[in-house]
Amino acid sequence: MKIYTRSGDKGKTSVIGARVPKDDIRVEAYGTVDELNAFIGQAAVRIGQESGEGWERLAEELAVIQQELFDCGSDLSYANPQPDQLKVTAEMTERLETWIDRHEQTAPPLTRFILPGGSEAAALLHVCRTVCRRAERRVVTLAASGQSCPEETLRYLNRLSDYFFNASRTANALLGVPNVEYERGARVFGRKDAKE
Fold first, then answer.
1. Residue 96 and residue 156: Cα distance in Å, rounded?
2. By CB distance 3.0 to 4.6 Å, which of 45, 67, 79, 166 could disulfide with 17?
3. Which residues share a beta bridge with 21?
4. In-domain check, residue 17
5. How far apart are CA 12 and CA 112, in angstroms?
6. Are 86 and 75 a contacting pair, CB within 8 Å?
7. What is the pTM of this model?
């Protein structure tokens, strides 16, 4: 089977149910999700070099997320999906919330904003976080255009960026490496007036 088809040589590609320019906002949305998946693959390779229960759990979570991002891309690729064609579910988003909460318990409490870094594994997870936020912005643009856009995919991506933030903190904690705090920032977490 040949990998190239030449069908996109004039700047158009196929989504499910339509032929569109390669810079169409739908293609930009699922293309950014695909880019995120590639960065997760890079982070997973690094995390797979560590041993221990915490690392194994992180690796397993990333493997699940990579599969689910393919589901996100599939859902976004429909020009006019029917509800029974969509793969991303509320249960997927809820599972992310469970993982986020568990990572929150593993990492030291936040007191200040943190910068990407500390360890290579954490830095790679922060790259995933920022690319995830960009994917979310692309999906928001798609939704605002009036075109069909699956709502659960947007919720999933919103929660996923939070997951990467806490997973990066867990990676540093597992390595015994402190997070890099933003030095010129005030203490913004854990203050009595933080909820006011």
1. 8
2. 79
3. 12
4. yes
5. 46
6. yes
7. 0.88
Secondary structure (3-state) at 83: helix
CATH code for the domain of 138? 1.20.1200.10
Is the distance from CB of 93 to CB of 155 less than 8 angstroms?
yes
Any idea which residue has 């590639």 for tokens? 38
- In a domain? residue 193: no
Distances (CA, A) of 4 to 13, 77, 84, 86, 116: 13, 20, 31, 28, 38
Domain span at residue 158 reads 12-181
**Residue 190 CA: distances (Å) to CA of 36, 102, 158, 183, 185:** 31, 18, 23, 17, 14
Question: CB of 168 within 8 A of CB of 116?
Answer: yes
What DSSP state is assigned to residue 196?
-
Whether 1 maps to a domain, the answer reads no
pLDDT > 90? residue 10: no
Alpha-carbon distance 164 to 100, whole Å?
Answer: 8
Domain count of the fold of the chain: 1
pLDDT of 26: 85
In a domain, 190, yes or no: no
Task: Report which of 187, 36, 59 is spatially closest to residue 111, judged by C-alpha positions.
Answer: 187
- Residue pLDDT, tens place only, 16-58: 556 665 667 888 999 999 999 999 999 999 999 999 999 999 9
